[in-house]
Amino acid sequence: MDYRLPDIPYRGPELDVPEPPDDLPYALFWDYHDREVLRLNGVGAEADALVRMLESPDSDPILRAAAAHTAGAERAAAAAPALRQALGGSDEVMAVEAAYALARLGDGAGDAALAAAVDRPRGDELAPLFAAGYLAQRGDPRGFPLVLRALRGDGPAPRMLACKQLHFFIPFHGRRGPGGEVVDVVGAFEEALAHPDAALHWQALFQLRETSDPAFIEIVRRYAGRAADAGLANLARSILDRAG
Fold this sequence. Notes:
Blueprint: H1 29-40, H2 47-54, H3 61-73, H4 80-86, H5 92-104, H6 108-119, H7 127-137, H8 144-151, H9 156-165, H10 185-194, H11 198-208, H12 214-226, H13 230-243
Helix pairs in contact: 1-3, 2-3, 3-5, 4-5, 5-6, 5-7, 6-7, 7-8, 7-9, 8-9, 10-11, 10-12, 11-13, 12-13
């Protein structure tokens, strides 16, 4: 006898976020993105709305993570108790977003949780990479080796997310991380721009638009001379023109 389980209808949250303004700094993209995700799904960025979302365990995990991120971006101190509660949860991305929000609110538990996510990664491949980028924005480059391993790895999603973190390590280029390793961000961008996946090229160049450091501009110059895709070549030349 054949058995057929009934269909379970599910509709995920609306994630079709509008393109950000051209002048939005790269470091503020996720603030913009998560605030827009909430808006598209009828959730406000006010503290009380964020707290309600964070305290609703049945809410979509994507929306809860966006609420956690936005609580930090909006400095919504009222959300701190719910954010602390999320630190020990099973959703690792949510826990990292809660940790970053707490860190932005001045709670040292947030920085400690981000460091733990990088130093002792658990099962999720993406959460530690988010944590590495957030720590770099907090002035701690310890996550660079983790980012570099993912950039060189086989998983397309971790590789792309690792590439998206490179911008945050630019201020640490040439320094030594907590483990004594040299933070070679120029080399990491060169690897991204040499990868067969052209999507990495777009992502790397998008981040390099905001630097005028000669070391980074030189790798854009070399890339512009070999780019096979006209759009990528034009983007590289626009970076060179902006840098003068």
